[in-house]
Amino acid sequence: MKNLFAFLKKNREITNEPDLDMTKIPKHIAIIMDGNGRWAKERNLPRALGHKAGVEAIRKIVKECDRLGVEYLTLYAFSTENWNRPVKEIDSLMKLLVDYLKKEFEELNANDVVINSIGNISKLPLICREELKYAYEKTKDNKGLILNLALNYGGRSEIVDAVKEISADLINKKISKDQINEDLFSKYMYTSKMPDPDLIIRPSGELRLSNFLLWQSAYSELWFSDINWPDFHEKELQSAIEDYQKRDRRFGKVK
Ligand code: FPP
What we know:
By secondary structure, the chain is an alpha/beta fold. The protein has 8 helices and 6 strands, in the order αβααβαβαβααββα. β3 (114-118), α5 and β4 form a beta-alpha-beta unit. The site of farnesyl diphosphate has 19 residues, from α2, α3, β2 and α4.
């Protein structure tokens, strides 16, 4: 019964979406959540409050992706380079992560969301790792949106890690040199169990990937906006998807 209501609700809302082709929703959306600091500065607020406002945007966008039927949502929450920020800011980001997981867990779980992460989380504070572990365990059999948090993530270090693992498997004769190809390489990436992102979104006016999903973004469609992440609402996500649906994805081939 619960599922029937959810189905009816989803379909009623979807039919209210005149500009989106519901048969062409990107399977995997990845977002570089940028501009929290500038959002705070514009309001004479501390940077930590910019990140806090960024978490509100996460809440909305996760719900909207779920409603639209996006299967994977990857959020760049903390990069390998973000350790170079002031300790106070790093602490506030780690605290926000714990608070988010604690506060949102019940609702995410009830909505069948799977909580996942990419990146080297062994370097995160224990409390973050514990909260993440709990969330992975409890949601691993869910069947809905896969929410993938990029934490202590760097595209280059992901590639280096893959090379190290491939070398170890070569030395241990688990694989042979001839087996190394793009498909095999992909299996050694943190994202081995998910498709490459169809659409990468970066708000805040910056036009770069900043070490995000370097391997996986080879054929991703990129979408940029001047809006800072805390001001990124459902409407912006819909615009990004609408633009994406107009793109001609050829993957290097001729139509
Ligand atoms: C970039 O904005 C944003 C980040 C480095 C952190 C993003 C993290 C969150 C939104 C919250 C924590 C995450 C979770 C999953 C709860 P910036 O600070 O670089 O902005 P600026 O370029 O304007 O200074």
